[in-house]
Amino acid sequence: MNIKTITSTPYNDQKPGTSGLRKKVAIFKKPHYLANFVQSVFDSLDNCHGKSLVLGGDGRYYNRDALQIIIKIAIANGFKELIIGQGGLLSTPAVSHLIRLNKAYGGLVLSASHNPGGETEDFGIKYNIDNGGPAPEKLTDAIFNRSLEITNYKLAEIETIDLDTQAQFKIEDVNIRIVDSVTDYAQLMTNLFDFELIKHAINSGTITLCFDAMHAITGPYAKRIFEQMLGASEGSVINGIPLEDFGGGHPDPNLVHAKELATLMFNDGAPVFAAASDGDGDRNMILGDNIFVTPSDSLAIMAANAQHIPAYADGISGVARSMPTSQAVDRVAKAYNLPCFETPTGWKFFGNLLDSDKITLCGEESFGSSSNHVREKDGLWAVLFWLNLIAKRKQSVMEIVHEHWKEFGRDIYSRHDYEAVDSEIANKIFDHLRELLPTLSDKIFGDYVVSYADEFSYKDPVDQSISEQQGIRIGFENGSRIVFRLSGTGTVGATLRIYLEKFSKDSNAHQQEPQQALADLIDLAEQFCEIKQRTGRTEATVIT
Ligand code: VG1
Ligand code: CO
After folding, report:
1. What residues does 484 pair with on adjacent strands?
2. Tell me: the pLDDT tens digits for 95-107?
3. What is the mean pLDDT of residues 160-164?
4. Is 61 helix (H, G, I), strand (E, B) or coil?
5. Which ligand 1 atom minimizes the distance to the CA of 115?
6. Number of CB atoms found within 10 A of residue 157's CB
7. Cα(171) to centroid(ligand 1), Å
8. Of 293, 503, 284, which Cα lies nearest the Cα of 376?
9. Is ligand 1 within 6 A of the CB of residue 254?
10. How far is CA 423 from CA 8, 455, 490, 534, in A?
11. What is the set of active-site residues?
12. Which residue's alpha carbon is nearest to atom 1 within ligand 1?
């Protein structure tokens, strides 16, 4: 086979963010843009010769074209086996699983996750290492540095590959496997959960459910698992066909973007359980009849109930949450005497903790949770965890959540996002907050006495690597917190995230509407960062 070397010039904007490189499709389509990045990834790895690579994406616009380019570059760089999801489709957790199952060297996930898709929207690419998890910062930094000096990339001159037929064939001595996207993942789920129990609860009508795949990757997975394997009635999975533009929606499972589902659950005749997932299938939103479970609570409830799930029945080693995630899981860890870690935002920071068995469960406030079964967050795993829990405890979602609050107290929580803020203004806001921090110690704002005000930095307890500037936190003596961060996944300007949290032990206060309960903290947060004066905005773009 002929290998060409294509001359290219570097781009200066290929720095991976919280979860890979995300840009508008038009940028990815610039000459050699994708190829430069992929070659930079391979150049930053020790040695790809003779290794196995997993490839797949969430099916968004450009997925197929990008895959054909990547296949040619991967073969030219010496990979000897490519494992590719049929139709070019693989959810992020399925990629993670396939890497682990096949002991592959790594994988490339093509997705911009919860960002919209389509010709004028976003595309993304992310490299995962041999543990199945996102490349750690050391590697993403090396990839970025390489991308700044790259002068050429290698391309194998081969025909376009048929991605749509399951097959195993060779291109000279390179083994190509086009695999069913769902089977191995579904098999893994049967190893973790009590499928018979869930099936029984569904057959007997104790559990009725609706799953919104948002026209993204989880459609085929959810149909197979919920409808075919667990016997949920046909139509239980809605928006189940993956579309290149996700039907024009934001494939982001929250009350704002999964509105159809939210409306269903807060009206008469709601099923017992509902859930949604995002573009690449790693997020989850959990709903019950007339209740939305915040992701932070969901993580805490899973930690408190792990013993009910076959995979975790023998106990869990510890838990972790990203810094802005509420402290609800910390309370469970304390009560159960479990180690609890606070990491920066992004799944890459959980990898070392999971690999060294310091934790079994972990999660983020941004609708992400998972366990040591893969090294990514896993939307359908969380849904199955809840289904298994409801079937086992024979209680509704509302009963489970309310009992949890009664036992541990409630961390009332919300996130306010200001999207597409002018980057210069956003940076000024952070300069201002950094100047403010030292002046805040012991200050009193109404009911709130500042107990600490700092910028979060994290030292990985396994490899001792340090990650700085991971968000600004202001904690109060009553346990409340305000956190400010800039998003690392947005593609237009800057997105300011304000995370708000207030703890209440008093069960009379547990029924409060979060925005009302948090009103004084929200005012305080806006006063600290001056978002409204500085941007002229009158309200947040998205409140979750
Ligand atoms: C967001 C979330 C973060 C999550 C990341 C990737 O990052 O806040 O918790 O890990 O998205 O999720 P940021 O930097 O925009 O806040 V996904 O589902 O896009 O892979
Ligand atoms: Co995602």
Report:
1. 472, 498
2. 999 999 999 999 9
3. 97
4. coil
5. 19
6. 11
7. 37
8. 284
9. no
10. 29, 19, 11, 12
11. 113
12. 489
Atom of ligand 1 nearest to the CA of 114: 19
Judged by its nearest atom, the ligand closest to the C-alpha of residue 497 is 1
Question: What token pair was written down for 457?
Answer: 């930095």
Residues whose CB is under 5 A from ligand 2 (ion)?
113, 278, 280, 282-283
Q: Which ligand is nearest to the Cα of residue 20, counting in written order?
A: 1
Closest CA to 297 of 407, 137, 455: 407
Q: How far is the CA of 19 from the centre of ligand 1 (A)?
A: 7
Residue-level pLDDT at 389: 98
Residue type at 274 in one-letter notation: A
Is 90 exceeded by the pLDDT of residue 508?
A: no
488 Cβ below 6 A of ligand 1 = yes
Tokens in use for 91?
């959810």
- State pTM to two decimals: 0.94
Q: pLDDT by residue (tens digit) across 395-442? A: 999 999 999 999 999 999 999 999 999 999 999 999 999 999 999 988
What contacts 175, CB < 8 A, 6 or more positions away? 80, 81, 82, 168
* Nearest CA, atom 18, ligand 1: 113
Q: Is ligand 1 within 6 A of the CB of residue 352?
A: no
Q: Is pLDDT of 113 > 80?
A: yes
Residue 321 is predicted with a pLDDT of: 98
Which amino acid residue places its CA nearest to atom 4 of ligand 1? 346
- Residue 357's CB is within 10 A of a number of other CB atoms, namely 10
Domains of the chain: 3-181 (3.40.120.10), 185-406 (3.40.120.10), 410-543 (3.30.310.50)
